[in-house]
Amino acid sequence: PQFLGIRSCWLSMSPEPSTHQTKPPKVQNLIGGSFVDSQASSYLDVINPATQEVVSQVPLTTNEEFKAAVSAAKQAYPSWRNTPITTRQRVMLKFQELIRKNMDKLAMNITTEQGKTLKDAHGDIFRGLEVVEHACGMATLQMGEYVPNVSNGVDTYSLREPLGVCAGICPFNFPAMIPLWMFPVAVTCGNTFVLKPSEKDPGASVILAELAMEAGLPDGVLNIVHGTNDTVNAICDDDDIRAVSFVGSNTAGMHIYARAAAKGKRIQSNMGAKNHGVVLPDANVDATLNALLAAGFGAAGQRCMALSTVVFVGNSKSWEDKLIERAKALKVTCGTEQDADLGPVISKEAKERICRLIQSGVDDGAKLLLDGRNIVVPGYEKGNFIGPTILSGVTPDMECYKEEIFGPVLVCMEANSFDEAIDIINRNKYGNGAAIFTTSGAAARKFQMEIEAGQIGINVPIPVPLPFFSFTGNKASFAGDLNFYGKAGVDFFTQIKTVTQQWKDIPTSVSLAMPTSQ
Ligand code: NAD
């Protein structure tokens, strides 16, 4: 009942922009259990990338409002950490049910603000939902250890305790999944949380927060502040925030890693990628080409685990023609259209950047086998669309190879041998993921053993692990040492306390020597 009073306008609002609406709605912050309008002097437009319509406006939260959010989280912490773990789990149990019930609403919001197809938006939500389901078993995940009788009458045990106020900073490309990687794990461990969604698509975070509160999350346990660099810097600098979870680009990630660490915080920072798919000539042709298309062009290439680089080994290069044919058949249009395969990229600036990187490939001598830059999508002429693009004959020194493109662009390279392909991948600075397509078990095993990337796919194009494992990017794709979700995620949001107890008659003699096992 209390929830109904504080409900923000998002769940009841039609996700389709109304023609009668003169002013787009302002996205609210969530502070201490209430959705509140910001007193910010500046707002940014949240733009539908398929139409350029302004969906809403997001505030650059004031410092006072930010402080109020942290203070609400700090105040909520003592009673939330003392709430039985079973009660905290039950909130997640209800939360996952509410997410399922609101899937369509969430997906429509994601497609409207982010551009990905509705089907892909469902996948975005579902992969986050799985983390919520996993958090329902937190009592087991958070269990401590016990060794009886470490000395006569003395036992030692360890407890995993929450940290206090934690914060999360999100990217634009998975508006539901990434917030759900963060706060469900943090709060079920007993922490309270301040979330900073991406300023480009904040709507899904707001809807999820409404649902979490409806599920029974007490006031102040989850707070949302919108904004950009200043809000992020305030999070890094705040003395009451104990841990920061970040996902996004390397520029922001390394800045946050350094700035928050200078304040003694723990940080997990998932960053950029350049994921390679190695194709051996013995691979199944159809399955491999379909996997390359799905992982290269799905979500218009805006996935950190997109397979953006193909390394054809030996004569598998001859499959390029078929790849082009199939890529041409993909339907590029607004994500709400039934038959859409890929939607627009997030912004005009992103489109310009991607087009510039494609051109740099051409200028550096790569062959543009398929050019999606000048695509016009009927009915959505203003959208930031780029059609599937394929660059061939790319070499490691080219800018289009060195930079993360983050668009629907497949960069194709050639290797004369399998060893050469492995060498190309290992020399790349990123280490998020790599996949191999082969029918040879020996080759697959060699790949698994020798590749320096955190997530390996063997005939699997986007090997993002489910939440009983962790998301394990490495090299320049990750900074920190405790990964997102899975066991490492629980470790990240908890600290260990070790208790040594003695229950026996107190010895009568005094010894000042270091205690040893007796
Ligand atoms: P981004 O770094 O531009 O933004 C991410 C967040 O950081 C946003 O909330 C933004 O407001 C903030 N931010 C941006 N620049 C900042 C700065 N200079 N100082 C302080 N804060 C700043 O990233 P994006 O464009 O939203 O997302 C795309 C990137 O995220 C890609 O590089 C992609 O590979 C990466 N990503 C990685 C993973 C992973 O798990 N490794 C997952 C998804 C996305």
Keywords:
6-stranded mixed beta sheet; 17 helices; 22 strands; disordered N terminus; NAD; methylmalonate-semialdehyde dehydrogenase (CoA acylating); Ald_DH/histidinol_DH; oxidoreductase
Widest beta sheet: strand line-up: 14-15-16-13-12-18-19
Overall geometry: globular
How large is the radius of gyration? 25 Å
Terminal Cα separation, in Å? Answer: 59 Å
Number of helices in the DSSP assignment: 17
Proportion of strand residues = 15-25%
Helical percent range? 25-40%
Low-confidence stretches: 1-7, 12-18
Could you describe the largest sheet, including whether it forms a barrel? 7 strands, mixed
Subunit organisation of the chains: single chain
Bound molecule kinds, no repeats: nicotinamide-adenine-dinucleotide
| Structure class | alpha/beta
Number of strands: 22
Mean pLDDT across residues? 95
Give a description of the structure.
The protein is an alpha/beta fold and about 525 residues long. It is built from 17 helices and 22 strands. The chain has a seven-stranded mixed beta sheet, with helices on both faces. Helix 3 packs across helix 8 (about 205-215) and helix 4 packs across helix 5. Residues about 1-5 and about 10-20 have low confidence and may be disordered. Nicotinamide-adenine-dinucleotide binds near residues 171, 228 and 255. Nicotinamide-adenine-dinucleotide binds near residues 199, 228, 248, 249 and 406. It is an enzyme of class 1 (oxidoreductase). GO terms for molecular function: methylmalonate-semialdehyde dehydrogenase (acylating, NAD) activity.
